[in-house]
Write a structure and sequence with these properties.
Elements lengths: L6 E12 L8 E3 L7 H8 L3 H8 L8 E6 L5 E6 L2 E15 L3 E10 L5 H12 L15 H4 L6 E6 L2 E5 L18 H7 L7 E4 L6 E7 L1 H6 L3 E2 L4 E2 L5 H7 L11 H11 E2 L8 E5 L2 E6 L1 H13 L1 H28 L5 H18 L9 H13 L2 H52 L9 H32 L2
Parallel strand pairs: 10-15
Antiparallel strand pairs: 1-6, 1-9, 1-10, 2-3, 3-5, 4-5, 4-7, 5-6, 7-8, 11-12, 13-14, 14-15
Helix pairs in contact: 7-8, 9-10, 10-11, 10-13, 11-13, 13-14
């Protein structure tokens, strides 16, 4: 970038979709191409198998596809109790995964608001896409959330339109029968391209936030180390806590002990004495750095390799939730295709494990450490363990159902075999050449009729068994 920025903000919206994505001239498929040194660095930061997941160029075979929205002079406006904020849209992207999940991201540049409190407000109020709670009188149910943590309105100026979301659809209970409603600007970006498709948010009322703040004075203050207390200044700092945990309306933890504990667990301070500090929470990845180093080094990394790293992590969370939903749907499906559904689900799960889920993504020390810390904080391993247990339980459930069906088929066969035994014996006797020569032609024909009856009975039974097998086969 030619112009110095004060802060960078990326709001990421992971969602599950059931249906198809229809690209257009607005959503442009972007296969990864190395045209700059930064793109070379971005790709080679990751292991080769991770590159395949992120940077493939075959839409038919790749586990994910990357699209960019055609953006020209677009802006994102936040109106909230902390003020009015206009930010330039740097990029709008969409990554579609074959696991049935996708991540929409809106990347923003701030070149106007320097106050640290403004950065907090932009992150907190800009990321919230619907009210987390409602309160007050009917027709004014968003009054209380707007007085604390919900924006008065958010607007996206794009495609010659200003898409304003003021959350008034949530002001009346009568309007909420359809459940959560996504903001107008998200609907504008997604709905025409997911026609007839359900779009389900993965996390909650908040988008995941990636943010970088460049402030020399603040970064320098966090370098201070108290030898007696064996602690850095940032470890008990209220603003750093609010930045990491995206509190735009004051620190939500009043305990000094808990504040320090949470900050210690969520901070990555390998370069703190160089003036760069990272923070990770379940719904954020943030960084504070000096103006020059942050602009030249950290900003490109936040926009590329760290963005890709957290894209993977969010895809894990979204995929795990989707698989869990599918397991529940399959378990509730008492119909004949449950085993087929199970095989399909398990095949998709294996594709996810082999092509997308990685315990480690890079050989770089800081990348290994940040990724491992993020995996722990976002509890990905715990959720994966729970999903494995759900898959195994579903397998046992389907196996039990199949055994019950097999037993029913065997019982049916045994009953039919007993029923057909006399006819089979008679048919066998009729087919033997043991009748005396003196038997009349009429008697001979009677035996032939009886044999024919037995054959017809056997054929009819075969047809019945065929139908029974079809009913019980998955």
């Amino acid at each position: 970038m030619n112009d110095t920025i004060i802060s960078y903000h990326n709001f990421m919206f992971p969602f599950i979709f059931k249906g198809e994505f229809y690209p257009s001239s607005q959503w442009i498929y972007k296969p990864f191409e190395i045209q700059t040194p930064q793109q070379y660095n971005q790709k080679n930061y990751f292991y080769a198998h991770v590159q395949d997941a992120l940077y493939g160029s075959n839409q038919q075979k790749d586990i994910s596809s990357y699209y960019e929205y055609a953006v020209d002079n677009a802006t994102y406006h936040i109106s909230c109790k902390q003020g009015e904020f206009d930010l330039d849209i740097d990029k709008i992207t969409l990554r579609i995964f074959k696991t049935g999940i996708a991540i929409l991201s809106i990347s923003l540049n701030n070149q106007n608001y320097q106050d640290p409190k403004d950065i907090l407000a932009i992150n907190d109020f800009g990321r919230r896409i619907y009210p987390p709670f409602l309160g007050g009188k009917d027709a004014q149910l968003t009054q209380k959330p707007k007085s604390s943590l919900l924006a008065y309105y958010l607007s996206l100026s794009l495609d010659g339109l200003t898409l304003k979301e003021d959350f008034k659809a949530f002001d009346s209970i009568a309007k909420l029968s359809s459940g959560v409603q996504l903001p107008k600007f998200i609907n504008h970006l997604l709905e025409p391209h997911f026609k007839g498709t359900d779009i389900l948010p993965v996390i909650d009322d908040r988008m995941f936030t990636i943010s970088l703040y460049l402030n020399d004075k603040l970064a320098d203050s966090y370098k201070f180390y108290d030898n007696e207390k064996d602690t850095y200044a940032y470890e008990s700092d209220a603003w750093w806590y609010e930045f990491v945990f995206v509190d735009g309306n004051g620190k939500t933890c009043t305990s000094k002990k808990m504040t320090k504990k949470f900050i210690t667990e969520s901070s990555y301070d390998r370069w703190v004495e160089y003036g760069t500090l990272f923070g990770i929470s379940r719904y954020s990845f943030v960084a504070l750095s000096t103006t020059d180093f942050g602009q030249d080094v950290i900003l490109p990394q936040m926009k590329s390799l760290y963005f890709d790293m957290f894209t993977l992590l969010l895809s894990y969370r979204a995929s795990i939730i989707k698989f869990s939903d599918e397991i529940q749907d399959t378990t509730n499906n008492k119909k004949k295709h449950i085993a087929k559904d199970m095989r399909m689900l398990y095949g998709n799960y294996l594709d996810f494990l082999n092509q997308l889920f990685f315990k480690e993504v890079t050989a770089q020390d800081q990348g290994i450490e940040i990724y491992k810390q993020a995996m722990s904080i976002m509890q990905i391993d715990m959720y994966m363990s729970d999903l494995d247990n759900e898959i195994n339980e579903l397998h046992n459930y389907v196996k039990m159902i199949q055994e019950e069906r097999e037993n029913k088929k065997l019982n049916t066969l045994n009953r039919l075999a007993g029923f057909l035994l006399p006819a089979s014996v008679l048919s066998g006797i009729a087919g033997m050449n043991i009748l005396p020569n003196t038997i009349t032609d009429q008697a001979q024909k009677g035996w032939e009729y009886l044999g024919g009856f037995a054959i017809v009975t056997i054929l009819a039974t075969w047809l019945i068994l065929k139908l029974v097998s079809k009913d019980t086969k998955d």
